[in-house]
Structure formats: structure tokens, C-alpha cells
Amino acid sequence: xxxxxxxxxxxxxxxxxxxxxxxxxxxxxxxxxxxxxxxxxxxxxxxxxxxxxxxxxxxxxxxxxxxxxxxx
Length: 72
Fold this sequence. Notes:
Blueprint: H1 3-23, E1 34-37, E2 43-46, H2 49-59
Antiparallel strand pairs: 1-2
């Protein structure tokens, strides 16, 4: 399995996401995409739950009902 290749791909995508978050004024604090390689070597980006909530709130897609949900 190519864990390093998966991590590199995730690192590239995380860098792109972090750059976009920075341009939007959201990067910092709890908001940061972190590269990872999954169990099969697939590229994965980790994002803290708090970060996802900050991002969805700023994008106006937060449900605000405490039910979780997801942005579409």
C-alpha cells in the first residue's frame, strides 16, 4: 500500500483547502485541514468537528437546531 502517496495527495488538497479558508478569513484557531492517509493508503483530510461547525456557520448552512445535519 502506498501510504506516502496517499498522504502526499491529501497534503496537496489540504493545502488548497487551507489556502481557500485563509482567503475567506476562516483559517486559524480550530479551523485547519490536516492531511492523513487512511487504512488502505487512501488520501484523507481531517477536520475537527468545531472547525466544520465554524465553516458551515460562516457559509450560512448551519442548521442551528443541534441535530447535526450536513451542509449540501
